[in-house]
Specification:
Spore Coat Polysaccharide Biosynthesis Protein SpsA, Chain A; Rossmann fold; nine-stranded mixed sheet; 14 strands
């Protein structure tokens, strides 16, 4: 018998209502030659029974692995990956709802370009909220995007497609991240380091009930902070950059090669002004944003945005305007780094220094 084209690995820890909703959507949007590998991570009886009923209905295409205790999301996911043998592997959270064609569209995108390593669907978790009456209706609005993709710096683990051969090459999820968080960031970095891209399939849609499982874990916030420190010690800090116009409100003149390099390192960049016609795919990058400002009052608006960004502050400000630079010098107490009319090399060096610093730019 020909093996399934794709193993869909779903770690499950309780939450029978969300798990049932996920399985129902998979049944409704059944993909040919796909096998579900459900890893029961020490769930209570209601969830155990739910998974066994699903397996009994489709014993040829659903496999259930049972752990007596919760081994953590990462270990359970790796357990499911190792249990399969399909050419493709899709990691899927049990708090997701898939739409028709979701998996075949992601595989089609991955097959279209040998540089593509990891694929996410379009999703509310990637900034595309559910605006239609249902997930299926939302997917219909993306029909004209089928076969197209946009580059990501990091692929998220809620729904993540990869070739099994690639995972064999770069390794599975790093189990030192414990219960989870930053494991997908780490995998994305290793995939990019191996010369592959992380992308979003524009024509596939999956809804995600974000952090539904992790929020229930005791000590979740402490574990999150510990994993962030572990990730940063390995790969460096990801910094937020506020980028002033190279000429009056023309941020698209920024060097695309440098921007892609910075985004690939995980940094976030906010440009002042809207993208010009020649911006190409720059505006499609998930970690690049364009801030609309008034042509006459942009310095004031930009400064107010800088002051308001306190929860996730900008750590580096790039200014090409002498007048705005003078304003910024008086705000250095906020702790951001300031580059005035820098070269590409100076920007890259400043980002590397801030990324590797112990205490940030203060």
């Amino acid at each position: 018998m020909q093996p399934p084209a794709c193993d869909i690995v779903i770690p499950v820890w309780n939450q029978p209502e969300l798990t049932a909703r996920c399985l129902q959507s998979l049944e409704r949007c059944r993909e040919t030659r796909a096998r579900l590998i459900l890893v029961d991570n020490g769930s209570d009886a209601p969830t155990q029974e739910l998974l066994e009923r699903a397996r009994a209905r489709r014993p040829d295409s659903i496999r259930v692995l049972r752990n007596e205790r919760n081994l953590g999301f990462i270990r359970a996911t790796n357990q499911g990956i190792r249990a399969g043998d399909s050419d493709w592997v899709c990691l899927l959270n049990n708090d997701t709802v898939v739409a028709p064609g979701w998996l075949s569209e992601m595989i089609q995108v991955a097959q279209a370009d040998p540089r593509i390593g990891l694929v996410n669907p379009t999703s509310n978790s990637l900034g595309f909220p559910l605006s239609a009456p249902s997930v299926d209706e939302q997917a219909k609005t993306l029909r004209d995007q089928r076969g197209r993709w946009a580059e990501l710096s990091t692929a998220l683990g809620f729904c993540l497609l990869a070739r099994r051969s690639l995972l064999n090459q770069v390794g599975l999820l790093d189990e030192s991240f414990g219960m989870g968080n930053f494991d997908d960031d780490d995998l994305s970095r290793r995939v990019r380091q191996a010369g592959f891209l992380c992308v979003r399939s524009r024509g596939a849609y999956v809804y995600h009930e974000e952090k539904a499982s992790f929020r229930r874990l005791p000590g979740w916030e402490d574990a999150f902070d510990e994993n962030r420190r572990r990730f940063e010690s390995r790969w460096g800090k990801r910094i937020r950059i506020l980028w002033g116009p190279l000429r009056p409100l023309a941020p698209a003149a920024a060097p695309e090669g440098l921007i892609r390099e910075l985004v690939g390192q995980g940094h976030w960049i906010s440009f002042l002004g809207l993208p010009e016609a020649g911006a190409g795919e720059l505006s499609a990058l998930a970690q690049v944003s364009f801030l609309k400002v008034h042509p006459r009052f942009w310095r004031l608006q930009a400064t107010l945005k800088l002051l308001a960004k306190r929860k996730k502050p900008y750590r580096l400000v790039v200014s090409f305007d002498p007048g705005w630079s003078r304003w910024l010098r008086g705000l250095r107490w906020m702790g951001f780094g300031l580059l005035e009319s820098p070269s590409e090399n100076q920007i890259g060096e400043a980002c590397q220094k801030l990324s590797q610093s112990r205490s940030g730019p203060r």
